[in-house]
Write a structure and sequence with these properties.
alpha/beta, five-stranded mixed sheet
Length: 388
């Protein structure tokens, strides 16, 4: 019996080590996994914007939708890997919940409109004490699921005070969940039969919700009735101080997403496919594009052109050094106020903090073209303001 227990203990240890190894590998391999996907996204976005009608337009739209699905799956798998290996560490700060809800409203309104659903976010001016990034990811999954599994009707997101905490509720008029399945829906790859018929997916969204809630020490509650809809709720600590709204600080000026003509961009990436894809996308928006595989080539290109670009788009993983070091050197040579965006699949805190400390904006792979375009529009606005 002693020998058997020893062998069982050894087998269990080996299995746990293998599982940790697997999740570490997946997290570490994120750059190589997302690199070709990022290139495909750049090319397909260019095609979508150019191919507005005809038979080919539907083919391009289908490819775009397929890439969205792949990005969603990889994003979920990488999130699970980071959560399981402890790579996602909470950074607790105070912030107004309406800022986060406004971002979610902008993100999900087009998706709800496509399905003919009413999506409503009830305003809330209170502040919470949480990790902004993790809470947003948790709510993203809840809102996404609500829209996905609601064939008709509406999705409502609102907040209620509960003692010293703020309860955030996501209501839908969707398929509903049987009482016997309320625990099972948080398991990986678990999907209700009715839900699997109604929408595509792997059943990872609520698994990520459960893991994030565990990391933040939050409780998720579910109230549901089959055929009538569901209510998912999470309670978040209130902040003692209400920070000023970022939205109020920057005002209500709408981002101009059209006028990008004349913007000069220098792209640095050691992957030539990514460079070509970026050039195709940016040129389609009216930008002038310079490409370089490394820092040395970038310096030579700027010197030859005899003009400083309006901004830099730089990959983090370069053959020699990294993107942040490259940006710092280019700023040293050509101007400390040179605007820069770091593009990376690395979601580790030290990269994010290093970028923030050097006033470098961050975009994660695969790039969301709308986010990139918004940042480029800011560049143009800054350039016009400087000229005046």
């Amino acid at each position: 019996m002693t020998r058997l227990n020893t062998e069982l203990g050894r087998a269990k240890g080996e299995a746990e080590e293998a599982n940790i190894s697997k999740t570490r590998f997946l997290a570490a391999a994120s750059h190589d996994i997302l690199q070709p996907l990022n290139a495909a996204r750049l090319y397909v976005t260019s095609l979508v914007e150019r191919q507005r009608s005809g038979n080919d337009a539907q083919l391009v739209t289908n490819i775009d939708a397929s890439l969205d699905a792949v990005e969603e799956i990889f994003g979920a798998l990488l999130d699970i890997s980071r959560l399981d290996t402890g790579a996602m560490k909470p950074e607790i700060v105070g912030f107004r919940i309406d800022e986060l809800l406004r971002q979610l409203e902008v993100e999900f309104t087009p998706l709800a409109q496509e399905k003919g659903l009413t999506l409503k976010f009830v305003p809330c001016s209170l502040a919470v004490q949480s990790d902004r990034r993790l809470l947003r990811r948790l709510l993203q999954n809840l809102v996404s699921n609500a829209i996905k599994y609601t064939p008709q009707g509406r999705v409502l997101v609102g907040c209620r005070l509960r003692g010293g905490r703020l309860r955030i509720d996501v209501y839908d008029t969707g398929l509903g969940i049987p009482a016997s399945k309320k625990r099972a829906i948080f398991q990986e790859f678990y999907r209700l039969d009715q839900g699997a018929k109604a929408a595509r997916g792997l059943g990872l969204g609520l698994s990520i919700v459960e893991r994030i809630a565990r990391v933040l020490d939050y409780r998720i509650t579910v109230i549901s009735a089959v055929g009538r809809g569901s209510q998912f709720s999470v309670e978040v600590p209130l902040s003692a101080v209400t920070p000023a709204s970022q939205h109020q600080r920057v005002g209500r000026r709408e981002v101009d997403r059209v006028q990008l003509s004349g913007i000069t961009v220098l792209c640095i990436d050691n992957d030539l496919t990514i460079l070509d894809g970026m050039e195709t996308l940016l040129a389609g928006w009216g930008c002038r594009v310079f490409k370089a595989p490394d820092l040395k080539a970038a310096i030579a290109i700027i010197a030859e052109a005899k003009m400083t670009p309006d901004g830099l788009l730089v990959d983090y993983h370069l053959d020699e050094g990294n993107g942040i070091a490259a940006i710092k050197e280019l700023r040293r040579r050509f101007g400390a106020d040179l605007t820069a965006i770091l593009i990376t699949a690395d979601r580790s805190p030290h990269v994010r903090e290093d970028a923030r400390a050097n006033a470098i904006q961050l975009l994660h792979k695969p790039i969301k073209p709308a986010a990139l375009r918004a940042l480029l529009t800011q560049w143009r606005t800054q350039r016009v303001a400087a000229a005046e």
